[in-house]
Amino acid sequence: MMDILFPFAGGLGLFLIGMMLLSQGLVGFAGGALQRALTRFTGSPARAFASGTLVTMLVQSSTATTVTLIGFVSAGLIGASQAVGVLLGASLGNTATGWIVAGLGLKISLGYYTMPLIGIGAFLKLLGRGRVTELGLALAGFGLMFTGLDSLSRSMQALSTVFNLASLPVGGYGARLAVMLVGLTMTAIMQSSSAAIATTLTALHGAVINFDQAAALVVGAAIGTTFTGVISAIGGTVHAKRTALAYVLFNAGAGIIAIVLLPLFHAAIDWLNAHAGLDAGASSLAAFHTLFIAVGVLLFLPVAGPFSRWIERLLPEVASAATARLDASLLSLPDVALEASERALEQLAGQALELFEARLHDGQDDDMEARLRALDHDIDRVYEFVGRIQLAPDDAASAASRIAQLHAIDHLLRLCTRLHDLLQARARLSEPDYAWAAGYGQRIIDAARRGLAERELSLCLDQLSLEAVGLTAEAAQRRQDALRLVPMGRSGASDALHRTDTYRWIERSAHHIWRMCHYLAQGRVTRDRKGSIETLAHPPLEAEAGLEAPVTQD
Q1: Burial class for 364, CB neighbours closer than 10 Å (0-12, 13-18, 19+)
Q2: What is the pTM of this model?
Q3: Confidence band, pLDDT 50/70/90 cuts, at residue 23
Q4: 3-state SS, residue 311
Q5: I want to staple 334 with a disulfide (CB 3.0 to 4.6 A). Which of 14, 57, 398, 485 is the partner?
């Protein structure tokens, strides 16, 4: 018994490790190109489907595609209907593993011939530099995968003499559903549909089970592969949960169709065997896997939009709109995480502008106080998220982007402090004494709002700097005038001091808006030009105007 189970367990383990190393190595060797392809080529559900298919075929892992996709959706880089397209593509692309196993692994014993790849890959990993080390991982993983497959195939034939796998239920929908649950359980335990399908293919190739049983096992594996996405979405944002739910519903729907119409699929496979030269056995099973997923795609892809909207109604958003996309699953994807935090900061900046504008027009009520407290809380959440983003030691562009975001958070927090002061002030800012300051403030708000709306804050920085410098100069003169003309008596002096404090609050608030926009623009430019770090020059006249330093002084 040990002579059978040990090679079986070891072969399955080698195959699993090989798949993981192959996927990890290919993703690392691509240097983020595959991840960027998912965002750049998803303009429509059809294009998203093509992207998801190709990326999954290249990395040989639907799990890697879906987990990355969940991060993109959480960050707002991909819309709901595009995400559905990528998910459909990931399911179809995942069928490529079955063709590799059936076409190469079982027909040709490649384990012996791929063993040198394990050695070459190990040397590249140990001695190489940069992305060459990731290529080494991929080569070693490829070799391990076929070495494990050889062991798995041999042990499966021996295992059939001890355990009669053919005793699995056969015939009728009840039996098919029971076997499907076995396949689902196998995938859930192995955390890899590829391993479950490879095991099923070797069992069919060795005549341990019949085609009907193998087909039901493959359907169960296709549904079970969604478990990893579900696990990664637990505790995540509502966007992550929507993506995982869509993936489960599609694979379950395609699986049910396959079980119900299994006789029709069987007839189609027989026709392909007779007229298209398809081999019976493992190749036919791989064709069945591709065929029923393709049928599901044909049914779901035309209704990707309504389907995604239905998912959104099932799982409505309940968190703050600004911070709802800050999912912990993004932390290991620096570019995506920084984009998510950037968008959250831009939304929070817009909320701060609304509060500042309302105060300039004498808005002051309990609702504003509550909104400001909520804004403070959301800023703290973004700060915590940005601090937890996992950056590679040599990723200078992402490090510079995060530093810029931390500067922006600093100025946003200082702006909130000034807004608290302004809400407590007794002054009516619509009065003539403050009309000049309100005018400067409104122009600064309008410029910043345009930049935020167009995601081009860099275009408004010149105007913001000129308005902020002008406001500072004017405020300095007004403070001097107010103090010089103070009449005798305590009430007159108190009124003048209160007025000069209000001038300073408005001036500092406007300054923080300017600096906040500067750093938000800097962070976005740094990421957009990743690889050649280029930061925006500091706004002109800052030194001459005697304005405070961006972070170290309030």
Answers
A1: middle
A2: 0.66
A3: low
A4: helix
A5: 398
Sequence spans of domains, the chain = 2-314, 328-528
CA 141 to chain centre: 25
Q: Round to whole Å and give the CA distance between 437 and 524.
A: 30
Indicate the pLDDT class of residue 410, thresholds 50, 70 and 90.
very high
Which position has the token pair 């290529």?
A: 135
pLDDT over threshold 50, residue 243? yes
Burial readout 114-150 (b: 16 or more C-beta within 10 A, e: otherwise): beebbeebeebbeeeeeeebbbbbbbbbbbbbbbbbb
CA dihedral 419, 421, 424, 425 (to 10 degrees): -100
CB atoms within 10 A of CB 78: 24
Calpha distance 221→269 (Å, rounded): 20
* CA geometry: angle 18, 22, 26, nearest 5 deg: 175
Structure tokens at 415: 């702006």
- Name the 3-class secondary structure at 110: coil
What per-residue confidence (pLDDT) applies to 318?
Answer: 65
Average pLDDT over residues 483-511: 72
Tokens standing for 136? Answer: 């080494």
- Cβ atoms of 110 and 146 within 8 Å: the answer is yes
Strands (DSSP E) found in 369-457: none
Which residue do the tokens 């959301």 mark? Answer: 378
The closest of 198, 221, 178, 223 to 102, measured between CA atoms, is 198
Cα gap 208→162, rounded to integer Å: 11
* Contact by Cβ (8 Å): 39, 72: yes
What Å distances lie between residue 511 and 70, 101, 116, 153, 240, CA to CA? 38, 63, 63, 70, 37
Contacts of residue 418, Cβ cutoff 8 Å, sequence gap at least 6: 505, 508, 509, 512
Summary count for the chain: helices (H), strands (E): 22, 0
CB 48 within 8 A of CB 85: yes
Of 1.20.58.220, 3.90.79.10, 1.10.540.10, 3.20.20.70, which CATH number belongs to 328-528? 1.20.58.220
d(CA 70, CA 158): 41
Question: Distance between CA atoms of 196 and 208, rounded to whole angstroms?
Answer: 15
Distance (Å, whole) CA 16 – CA 198: 10
Of 215-224, 275-284, 478-487, highest mean pLDDT: 215-224
d(CA 237, CA 223): 23
- Between CA 347 and CA 381 the distance in angstroms is 13
Distance CA 280, CA 283 (A): 6
